[in-house]
Amino acid sequence: MQRLKKVGKVLGVVVLVLVLVVAGAYGWASWKTSSLLSQTFEAHEVDFPIPFPLTEEEIDALRQERLAAMPPVEAPAVEPAEADGAEGEEPAAEPEPPPPAPDPLAGVDLDALALERAVARGRHLVEARYACIECHGDDFAGGTMVDDPMIGSLHGPNLTGGQGSRVADWSANDWDHAVRHGIFPDGKPSAMPAEDYQRMSDRELSDIIAYIRSFPAVSQTMAPVSLGPLGTVLMATGQLPLSVTVVESHDTPHAVLPPEAAPTAEFGEHLAGVCTGCHRADLRGGPIAAGPPDWLPAANLTPHADGLAAWSYDDFRTAMREFRRPDGTELRAPMSLMQRYISNMDDTELEALWAYLQSLEPQPTGT
Ligand code: HEC
Ligand code: HEC
Q: Which residue's CA is the nearest one to ligand 2's atom 22?
């Protein structure tokens, strides 16, 4: 009896100590997390137009296109002028200015055309590559990234500029900081996964903003980020790092333009920026650090025997279009989350990705 009482007492003390330790540790984790979140960060100042104006080449191409489509009525007036220019090395003091050639671009709204093209490019970027709608909603009025009682709730805010959205009067610099650095305009760190957008050029971000702004303004306020007990501990212990601390550099200038869209390894490397979050920077695959523990490891995409050594371009193309491997098995989650985007990639994009994957050093799968 006496003995039992003693054991009971000891147990009680042990439990009490445990509770205190856990409470203390949790208190520390909460304090640590809130101090991490209240830090401020800085990044370079950037500026770019929204939308990008038409380039000289685009304007030239447009001029040629319109000239070709013009009725040939003006031809007699133009011909002698052309002949003069061709032989006369010394234009004889410009006697009679030829009647002004009609401007093929008269009446063309170049700004409206630039916006139209930017929105079309932005739409393709969002639909085929940069999965903004995954967390910000199909209409950009807000969505859910994570909603889990243990991890916490992380919502993608409303980006439409309507009530409840903060971005209505954001500058290019504010967008750059949010999307490519994980920093709010006030310097506070954001849960926006900026590390995934490190290869995004200024024009791509500008196109995406133009596309987002083409959506109607919606009134919706998303709840701010709140971490659950596990999320708090993970963040305090560095296992759920803030994007701003993962992004390698906050002052390296971003490319202004993406590489030319062509079936080249260079363009493929640019596109593969959206694969590296799971398949890793060197694309050798392995367990996905950024994902929940139940995610399957990412496949090895290098030309190694454990990777895609035996695949042809057709195998790759079929896998990306139908989400099946050459042996007919389906590509499973989380790869299947990418289907809605990758299946919108055009042939040039798939050829470029393949050219890049084939150019990689064969490497065994990551561990
Ligand atoms: C995996 C989910 C996810 C994806 C994908 C994503 N975002 Fe976000 N984004 C978030 C979350 C969550 C926040 C809010 C962060 C916070 O409150 O700390 C956010 C914040 C933002 C903000 C700041 C808005 C504000 O009101 O402060 C902008 C702008 C933004 N994202 C744009 C984009 C764009 C553009 C893309 C695509 C290129 C994108 N996001 C892709 C989750 C995501
Ligand atoms: C969200 C994480 C994620 C992203 C992003 C992602 N993948 Fe995957 N990928 C996976 C996982 C996990 C597998 C393994 C799926 C399985 O075993 O069924 C996989 C499998 C594959 C396979 C099949 C390889 C094989 O040997 O079976 C190919 C090909 C592939 N991914 C290409 C890509 C490309 C190209 C991109 C970028 C455009 C990409 N993935 C982006 C997670 C991802």
A: 299
What CA–CA distance (Å, rounded) separates 141 from 136?
6
**Residue whose CA is closest, atom 12 of ligand 1?**
156
Give start-end residues of each CATH 1.10.760.10 domain in the chain. 43-54+109-253, 259-367
CA of 265 to the centre of ligand 1 (A): 29
CA distance 215 to 122: 12
Query: From the CA of 356, how far away is ligand 1's center (Å)?
Result: 28
Strand partners, 227: 152
CA of 179 to the centre of ligand 1 (A): 7
**CATH architecture of the domain formed by 43-54+109-253:** Orthogonal Bundle (1.10)
Q: 110 alpha carbon to ligand 1 midpoint, in Å?
A: 31
pLDDT in tens, 7-63: 778 778 888 888 888 888 889 989 989 888 999 999 999 999 999 999 999 999 999
- Residue closest via CA to ligand 1's atom 15 equals 191
Backbone φ, ψ for residue 89 (5° rounding): -65, -40
The hierarchical CATH code for the domain 259-367 is 1.10.760.10
Q: How many CB atoms lie within 10 A of CB 162?
A: 19
Closest atom, ligand 2, to C-alpha of 307: 26
291-304 pLDDT per residue, tens = 777 899 999 999 99
154: which strand partners? 146
Residue 130 in contact with ligand 1 by CB distance below 6 A = yes
Report CA 200 to chain centroid distance, whole Å: 6
Tell me the C-alpha distance between 365 and 367, whole Å: 7
Please choose, from the candidates 142, 143, 156, the residue with its C-alpha nearest in 3D space to the C-alpha of residue 217.
Answer: 142
Minimal-distance CA residue to ligand 2 atom 40 = 275
